[in-house]
Structures are given as structure tokens and as C-alpha cells.
Amino acid sequence: MKCPKCGEDNVFGALNCVKCGTKLTTSCPYCGYENVLGVLACQNCGRFLRKIKEELKSGEAPKA
Ligand SMILES: [Zn+2]
Ligand SMILES: [Zn+2]
Question: Cα-Cα-Cα-Cα dihedral of 51, 47, 43, 22, to 10°?
Fold first, then answer.
């Protein structure tokens, strides 16, 4: 997976970028589990992580 900061191509499952050290995990808002970036559902509790973002987006005013 590519680092969002420097673009380094890290192996899938890496917790930190090997180049710049940026955290490549996203914590589940439900249980706090640190999931690797790119997963659709929390690896611990199974709740969908992507849906959360969509819900957050729906609360924002659309950019026309
Ligand atoms: Zn990086
Ligand atoms: Zn979770």
C-alpha cells in the first residue's frame, strides 16, 4: 500500500511507512482497534469503517 504522505510503496499490513514512519493504520471508532489502511471493516469488531466516512460526508455541505 502506498504511504499517503510520501508515496512509498509499503507491504500490505505494514503499521508504519518504512520510509517516513507515517502511521498506516486507522483506529476503529467503535472498539479502538488499529486497522491497516484500506480495510473495509474493522478487523476486530467487524463493523464497516467505510460507512462511517460516508456518514460523516453526508453531514457536510456539498461542494458544487
Ligand atoms: Zn511514507
Ligand atoms: Zn472495531
Answer: 40
Which ligand is in closest contact with the Cα of 42?
2
Question: Domain total for the chain?
Answer: 1
Q: How far is the CA of 22 from the centre of ligand 2 (A)?
A: 21
Q: How far apart are CA 61 and CA 20, in angstroms?
A: 34
Intervals of the chain under pLDDT 50: none
Residue 62 falls within a domain, yes or no? no
63 domain residue, yes or no? no
Predicted TM-score (pTM) of the model is: 0.60
Tell how far the Cα of 16 is from the centroid of ligand 1, in angstroms.
Answer: 8
Report yes or no on 53 lying in a domain.
Answer: yes
